[in-house]
Fold this sequence. Notes:
With about 450 residues, this protein is an all-alpha fold.
Amino acid sequence: MAALSYILSFKAYVMLPIVIFIIALMISIKPGQALMSSLTLGVGLAGIFIVIDFLVSNVGPAIGSLISHTGLNYPVLDVGWPSLAAMAWASDIGVVAIPMVLLINAIMISMNMTRTIDVDIWNYWHFVLLGVMVKKATGNFYMAVLATAVIAIITLKLADWTAPFIEKRFGFKGISVPTVSAITFFPIGVIGNAVIERIPYIRDLHANPDTIKKRFGVLGEPVIIGFVIGDFLGILAGYDVKGILQLGVSLAAVMVLLPAMAEILVRGLTPISEGIKRFMERRFPGRDKLYLSVDPALLLGNTSVLVTGLLLMPLSIALAFVIPGNRIIPLADLTNLMTTISMVILATNSNVIRALIIGIPIVIIDLVISSRMAAFFTSLMHLYKVAGQKGYSGLMSSFTDGGNPLRYWIFEVFKGNVLAYASLPLLALLLYASWYAYKRFKNSENKGGISDSV
C-alpha cells in the first residue's frame, strides 16, 4: 500500500512519461527516441498544467469577488475534484482497481472490444471513486469492485467512439480520452446537437474561432477573445481598471499558451503512436489502429473549448442562484468546466453557441447532483481523512465531478434505486447515440468527406 501511494504521488506529467517510455521500449522503439518522445510528452503536459494553474490563480479570485458581491451564502462548500481524487486513492478499492482495470483493458484489446490503451493510471481515480461510493452505501466490497469495472468499460467504449472525432476535429492523432469527467458529456452533446438541428433559426447560428476570425478579422483572434473575456469577468468582479486589464492580459496569455503546450505534447506522442501502429500491424495484420489515452487537459488546447468554458463560468454562478434545490456555489471546480464542455465542443464541431446552449442543462445537472450528494461526500471525506478546507466543518462537495451524471446514475443502480433502473432505456439511448454518431462519422470518412454534424 505504501509503495502504491508513493507511485500515485507522482504528478501526471511524471507518471505518464514513465509509462509511455516503458511501452515504447516494449514495442521496439529505440531507447533514445523513446526517452526523447516521453520527455517531450511530459514537458507538454507539465506546460498545460502550469498554464491551467495560472488560469485558476487569476480567475479564482475574480469568481470569489463576483460571489461575494451577491451577498448570498450557500451551505455547501465546493472543494473541487482534488479532494475526491485524494479520497479515492486513500481507499482499499484503489489497490484493486489498478491491476483490475489494466487486465480488463488488456482483455478487451485482445478480443478487439476496444482500441484504447488506457495508460493514464492517475485518472483511474474516476473509476475508483464510484467504487468508494458504492462500498460506503452498500457495505459490499465486491459490489464496489464490480461498479468500478462497469464504469471503466463504459468509459473505454466511449473513448473509442470519440477518438476519430478528436483526430479530425481537434487534430490530435492516435489518442483517446477515457476520463469520466470529460467523456460522460459526449452523448449529451450528440443528442443536444441533434435537437438543435431541428430548431429553426437556432440551428443556423454558428460561431467557432474560424468563423469569428472571418467576420471580425483581428478581433476574432484567440488572444483578443481571451482579453475581452478577461475584461468582462473583471468588470463583473468589480475590479478597478488595473485589475480588469491584468485579468484580460492573463486570459489572453492562456488562450495563446494552452494550444502551444498541446502541440508540444502531441509532438512527443506522435512517434509513440506511430510505433504502436507498426507494432500492431506486425503482430496482428488487419487489426484496426489503437489509441493511447491522454489526460483531458490536452483538449483545452482547442480555442473553442477555452472560450466556451470561460463563458460558462459566470453563467454557472448565475444559475446557482436561481436553480431550485441547489445548495452549492461553484468555486474550486469552476475552471474544470472546460474539461466538462470539451466533449460537447467535439460533438458540435466547435460550435460555441450550440455548446453554450447544451452546457446550460449540464451545469444544472451538476449543481443538483453535487448538492444532493453533499452530505454523503462529506461523510466520505471525514472517513478517509481528506481535508476540504482548513478550519471548515460544514458540508462539502465537488461541483463538476461530484455532480457527474454517469457516475451518479451507476451509483444509484448499485444502491438498488428503482428510478435508476427505470432510466436504463435513457442510458441505452445515450450510448446508442454515441455509437451511431461514431458509425456515421466513420462512414462519412470512408466516402471521402467529413460530416459537420453528428
